Amino acid sequence: MKPHTLSVLVENKPGVLSRVTGLFSRRGFNIESLAVGTCEEPEMSRITIVCIGDDAQIEQVMKQLNKLIDVIKVSDITENDRVERELALIKVTAEPGSSRAEIMQIASIFRAQIIDVGSRTVVLSVTGDTEKIDALEKLLRQYGVKELVRTGKIAILRGTKTVKSAK
Amino acid sequence: MKTGAKILIEGLQREGVETIFGYPGGVVLPIYDELYNSSLRHILVRHEQAAAHAADGFARASGRVGVCLATSGPGACNLVTGIATAYMDSVSIVALTGQVPTSLLGNDAFQESDITGITLPITKHNYLVKRTEELGHVIREAFYISRTGRPGPVLIDLPKDVSTKEIEYEYPESEQVNLRGYQPTYRGHTRQIDKAIEMMMEAERPLLYVGGGVISSNASAELVSLAEMMGIPVTTTLMGIGAIPCDHPLNLGMLGMHGTRYANYAVTESDLLIAIGVRFDDRVTGKLDTFASQARIIHVDIDPAEIGKNKRVDVPIVGDSKAVLQEMRERIQKRKEYERWLSRIRTWKEKFPMKYPRDGVLRPQFVIEQLSELLAGEGIIVSEVGQNQMWTAQYYCFRHPRTWITSGGLGTMGYGFPAAMGAHFARPDQVVFDIAGDGSFQMNIQELGTVSHYQIPVKVAILNNRFLGMVRQWQELFYDRRYSYTELPAVDFVKIANAYGIDGMRVEDTNDVRPALQAAIETDGPFILDFRVEREENVFPMVPAGAAINEMIGGLNE
Ligand SMILES: Cc1ncc(C[n+]2csc(CCOP(=O)(O)OP(=O)(O)O)c2C)c(N)n1
What CA–CA distance (Å, rounded) separates B222 from A16? Predict the structure, then answer.
């Protein structure tokens, strides 16, 4: 049982996301994270799904996804050389004074940006892989994380390889 | 200029539809108005569930797409059981539902229900048509998706304004449907087929395990031909009955929970299981790790997701049963003798034949046997769900594919009677019987209205035990005979039939069975037979839930 990253190319049609997520819940598969957006093809979207399961379960997930008429291609890119990113927005309690300076310092170590400064809070924006964001969140917790918003993971293959429909 | 409703009706006709089953309501008024002077025949059922089952029975008996139509909200929701039934058994139907106008969608408008959302998990695909301009194309696609690949139900939801709007439209003569996300594989991989053949050559105890996929791909002839050429015995699932004639020497009958002892023994001892168009359902396999545990497994199916879903497979072959069986046959170069295996099976067959007491008591198995003899395995037999279904599977001798119609996957009580109506429209030349239980029959008994109205010559043989028999059987065997809510009071079905203007007969004595069946067959219109059978008869053999399939109760030759 380990996390698998699936890259799923779908028709950009209404309801396609609920077809995909409905399938997961119906068949008892768990989604760890999900990110969806338009892609290089105008009428398609790409969904990146992270799910946990053994090999047989993942194979079944992929086969079931492939059966959906609006799903064009499903690739498990877990074993491929790839880059992955998540984005997180973190609102941290930052009273003017020393803690604010410390937070700024931590932000710069993590190459996070301060995108909003309030009288008692700052908002950080950070991108990276899951571990990096987890680490940053952990560090910031001592100051008080008031709110955390995180996207699902997106992933892309390195080099010339792509996840595309075989047309 | 054409309205959406007109485009719909024309589209159906272009797809070869002659008969649809439906029930009207507010938002489908424009469609019904178009039907009023159309040559398309519409059968008015008495409950939308029956429309879906009738479309399904039509599809199974004919191999074509069945069509049903309902209004929005309650009408659409009443189709749900029928759609789920078709989905579980991979039956090609197109369900048309009315919907509130697009301007009201999502408003909880009167009789609005999110039927595309509701049917998402029980359709192969579904559509909410938002523009009349898309409609023709959607119809094409829906029929294409429904009947190709692994068949299944497709639903089209039609808001009222989409039906009323007028546009310039010509249904395309032969528009190629091209869906980049849907490309079924029909031809099996040659290398895999060769590997399968190699395994057949190495095997000593091969067994063909075939199911509904062989029926739906019309592969019976290819199956029988391969079995005969190689001398490999065949067992069928409930859905595969009819793929090989019942009395074929290589046929072992049904396997699984109520399968024959010899079929289940054969699976258990087989060293090569050749699974075709099946899905290793739990009612077939019993305890999964002991199922065919000595066998290598070849699995042919058009749906890749079925291969390896429940059981590890040695040679997966994705493809259409017919195409794969044909190619297998062509590529086989040698024959092999499995004489010892066949003689072992013959011994089992002789030792554990299917039988029941012949003691003058009116038993349900006797009724089915008599009907089987009378029709000589011809005719179309539909069943309800429960003991009636299992006895029919066990005791009726089916000789042709698509003559046995039953709800296998979902096990829907009330399926049989309306499905039998549909089967009649598919094969008007055939006698159609619904073998029913008194419980199941009462689930769609209102269809007496439909068969009477159109004089649909469906015969119903009720095996009336005044119990929800199959549940009672489980209570008897596993719950200490505590018959909790499974006893039904007597109903005079003949009187009910008469009230609808339908003839019927009550039968209480074995001697009257044959003449009564004869009378039903000879009647031109519908006919209801109320057989007052032994009340606590059980279906045997039986594999208790969770047991290995060779651990059966009953069916021993005492
Ligand atoms: C719609 C539906 N409800 C409940 C069941 C559960 N069930 C399975 S068999 C059965 C009893 C069927 O009784 P009857 O139709 O009289 O047939 P018999 O078993 O007596 O032949 C029941 C209640 C079902 N299969 N379908």
Answer: 39
Please calculate the CA angle B222-B226-B232 and round it to the nearest 5 degrees: 140
For residue A28, the Cα-to-chain-centroid distance in whole angstroms is 21
- What the block records as the tokens of B437 is 């239980």
Rounded to a whole number of angstroms, the distance from the CA of A70 to the nearest CA of chain B is 6
pLDDT tens digit string along A62-92? 999 999 999 999 999 999 999 999 999 999 9
CATH class in words for B190-352: alpha beta
Q: Give how far A86 is from chain B: nearest CA, Å.
A: 28
Q: Which residues surround ligand 1 with Cβ inside 6 Å?
A: B 384-388, 411-413, 437-440, 463, 465, 467-471
What residue type is B253 in one-letter code?
G
Write out the two tokens for B305: 């997701």
CB contact under 8 A, A22 and B121: yes
Q: What is the SS3 assignment for A120?
A: coil
Task: Give the CATH class of B2-167.
Answer: alpha beta
Q: So what's the pLDDT on residue A166?
A: 63
Residue of B nearest to A67 (CA): B182
Pick from B91, B384, B87, B368: which is nearest to B215 by CA?
Answer: B91
| Domains, chain A, with CATH or none | 2-76 (3.30.70.260), 83-154 (3.30.70.1150)
Query: Tell me: domain B364-532, CATH 3.40.50.970, correct?
Result: yes
E-strand spans in B154-307?
A: 154-159, 166-167, 206-210, 234-236, 251-254, 272-276, 296-301
Q: Which of A63, A73, A74, A164 to mutate to test the interface with B (most CBs of B within 10 A)?
A: A63
Common-topology check for domains B2-167 and B364-532: yes
Helices assigned H by DSSP within B171-219: 190-202, 212-216
| Helix or strand (DSSP H, E) at B436 | strand B432-437
Contact B117 A70 (CB under 8 A): no
Rounded mean pLDDT of B245-262?
A: 98
pTM: predicted TM-score of the whole model, two decimal places = 0.96
CB A151 within 8 A of CB A141: no
Tell me which chain A residues have a C-beta less than 8 angstroms from the C-beta of B179: 69
Q: What would the DSSP string read from start to end of B440-505?
A: HHTTSGGGHHHHHHTT--EEEEEEE-SB-HHHHHHHHHHSTT--TT-B-----HHHHHHHTT-EEE
CA B469 – ligand 1 centroid, Å: 7
Residue from B365, B385, B530 whose mutation best tests the ligand 1 pocket (most atoms within 8 A of CB): B385
- Looking at residue A76, its amino acid is D
Asked about B470 being catalytic, the answer comes back as yes
Touching check for B125 and chain A: CB below 8 Å?
A: yes
How far is the C-alpha of A49 from the C-alpha of A33, rounded, in Å?
6
Domain ranges within chain B, ordered by starting residue: 2-167, 190-352, 364-532
- What ipTM was estimated for this complex? 0.91
Q: What is the pLDDT of residues B197-233, one digit of tens each?
A: 999 999 999 999 999 999 999 999 999 999 999 999 9
* Closest-CA residue to A64 (of A81, A51, A77): A51
* Secondary structure of B408-425 as H, E, C letters: CCCCCCCCHHHHHHHHHH
Q: Residue B453 and residue A43: Cα distance in Å, rounded? A: 50
Q: Which helix (H) or strand (E) holds B526?
A: none
CA distance B221 to B121: 34
d(CA A38, CA B519) in angstroms, rounded, equals 67
Q: Which atom of ligand 1 is nearest to the CA of B438?
A: 16
> Is B181 in contact with A71 (Cβ distance < 8 A)?
yes
* Alpha-carbon separation of residue B190 from B183, B203, B318, B325, B326 (angstroms): 19, 20, 11, 12, 12
Which element (helix H / strand E) includes A102?
Answer: helix A98-109
